[in-house]
Amino acid sequence: MLDVTELSRAYGQGPAAHLAIADVTFSVERGELLTIVGPSGCGKSTLLRCIGGLLAPTSGGVVLNGAPVTRVPDRLAVVLQDYSRSLYPWLSVADNVALPLRRTVKGRTARRAAAVAALETVGLADAARRHPWQLSGGMQQRVAIARALACDPVLLLMDEPFGSVDAQTREDLEDLVLAVRAERGITILLVTHDIDESVYVGDRVVVLTGGPGRIRAILRVSLPAPRDQIATRELPEFVHLRAEVSRLVRSGSQAQAQLAGD
């Protein structure tokens, strides 16, 4: 479904240019949930923005469903980390979810019905008339996920979507994403700095090197489904894979620090 080929992105020009990612190549199957991890500053968010057509690559390219990505593709949705800034506080929850549908769905009634259906998917149908500031952080992020789902995306990009919530809420949202993927068959790319999360939700884990981000390893996650926050994390396979991803990320951080020192 998605092919990323020799993708590089630099900020600035000439000798002062900063190369954020370099020669990144991988493919994603339809319905797959791919997680992306790496040291801080390795270009994870830059990679996601290039895939979503929000940034033009310096070289290389992205192909989605056989078409080169030169702008934001149709039926693509993005969920960001800072839910408090991605929702309009003066709009109701339902109106926040329905807002992007103004481009694709005619009629306020139809848009509201789609919004309510998306809110039901994330367990917030009763909150449709409330405002974001009346909800907890985890509920606000559920609203942001509902807004993405209302667009019926074929590709969902999530940029550290659970980084601003507490541990219990984070686990609940991880399970929500897994349930939504299973129900709708959406292809998901999820950037995270949490190694346990990358293994728990992912079908494969892409590990980037320190900046500029390059592919260090792509690891397949062969954990049984459905996954469970306690039972899955106790499995020897989970513990082993979590340690392997941690080793790769840490060694990438050390190599980056050594290069900076040189």
Strand content range: 15-25%
The first-to-last residue Cα distance is 41 Å
User: What integer value in Å does the Rg equal?
Assistant: 19 Å
> How many strands, which pairing sense, and closed or not: the largest β-sheet?
6 strands, mixed
Which overall shape is indicated by the principal axes computed on the Cα atoms?
A: globular
Which strand order spans the largest sheet, edge to edge or round the barrel? Answer: 6-7-8-3-9-10
- SS-based class: alpha/beta
CATH fold annotation of the domain at 1-75 and 191-262? Rossmann fold
CATH architectural grouping of the domain at 1-75 and 191-262:
3-Layer(aba) Sandwich
What's the overall average pLDDT, rounded?
A: 90
Approximate helicity band: 25-40%
- Listing every helix as H and every strand as E from the N terminus to the C terminus, the arrangement reads EEEHEEEHHHHEHEHEEHH
- The CATH first-level class of the domain at 1-75 and 191-262 comes to Alpha Beta
* H/I helix tally: 9
Number of strands: 10
Pick out the low-confidence regions: 257-262
CATH homology-level superfamily of the domain at 1-75 and 191-262: P-loop containing nucleotide triphosphate hydrolases
